[in-house]
Write a structure and sequence with these properties.
By secondary structure, the chain is α+β, with helices and mostly antiparallel strands. It has helices spanning about 5-15, 20-35, 160-180, 205-210, and strands spanning about 45-50, 60-65, 75-80, 85-95, 125-130, 140-150, 185, 195.
Length: about 220
């Protein structure tokens, strides 16, 4: 999993040295990185269903919403059963929608002329081939929690972006302080308690840093 927080730098910022195991600090920094990346524009799509497998160990998958994958694209698969994860190549794409979505009021009288998406805009399935020694998936299977398919070429597009790196560091510090604070409550410099530091406002602390890269879909609600 992605981790954009340097372990040695995090130790210096926290002033903990070697007091805590590296695994604990790495877990916190990975969580911070994944939280930040979930808010950014990325060539990544969640997978909510897979199977049944086809001849030649071809695995069909369905994405949440429409995707922009293409045949021959190199991708990384994550969050599926272990023998499906890793690098793969898209072998086919398709869609399950039976008809284009109806436009919303106040334009119902214009149907079907107001909005007719192209076939490419309705793609929400894809297939990839993966050799493995496990029993094939013989039925459609829900993927909970979602798996992810990510364009291999742009997976780490933010790994050297200073805005993203600083945001990851700040969230890692927040998560760690909430973890070790007595009762999970951090005190401010004026000794006032700061509860709910890991609540809904957590990502809001770094939205200014992430503004140039945020996916507009994550801002709804």
């Amino acid at each position: 999993m992605a981790n954009y927080v340097d372990l040695a730098e995090l130790k210096t910022v926290l002033g903990v040295g070697d007091l805590y195991p590296d695994a604990q600090l790495t877990n916190v920094s990975t969580a911070a990185t994944n939280l930040v990346l979930s808010m950014l524009s990325r060539y990544q799509y969640p997978i909510d269903q897979l199977g049944p497998e086809e001849a030649g160990q071809v695995v069909p998958c369905r994405t949440v919403g429409f995707h922009r994958l293409y045949v021959g694209q190199s991708v990384n698969i994550a969050g599926l059963p272990a023998h499906f994860n890793g690098t793969a190549t898209i072998t086919a794409i398709g869609y399950t929608a039976e008809q284009p979505p109806r436009p919303l009021w106040p334009w119902p009288t214009y149907w079907p002329y107001s909005y007719l998406p192209t076939q490419e805009q309705l793609y929400n399935t894809f297939k990839f081939q993966k050799s493995h020694g496990e029993s094939p998936v013989s039925v459609e299977r829900a993927v909970i929690p979602y798996g992810f398919v990510t364009d291999q070429a742009s997976e780490d597009v933010y790994e050297n972006d200073p805005l993203v790196l600083e945001a990851c560091m700040m969230l890692a510090v927040e998560i760690w302080q909430a973890r070790v604070a007595p009762g999970g409550t951090i005190q401010g410099v004026d000794f006032q308690p700061g509860p709910f530091r890991l609540g809904r406002s957590l990502i809001g602390r770094v939205q200014g840093l992430l503004a140039p890269h945020m996916d507009v879909g994550t801002m709804v609600g």
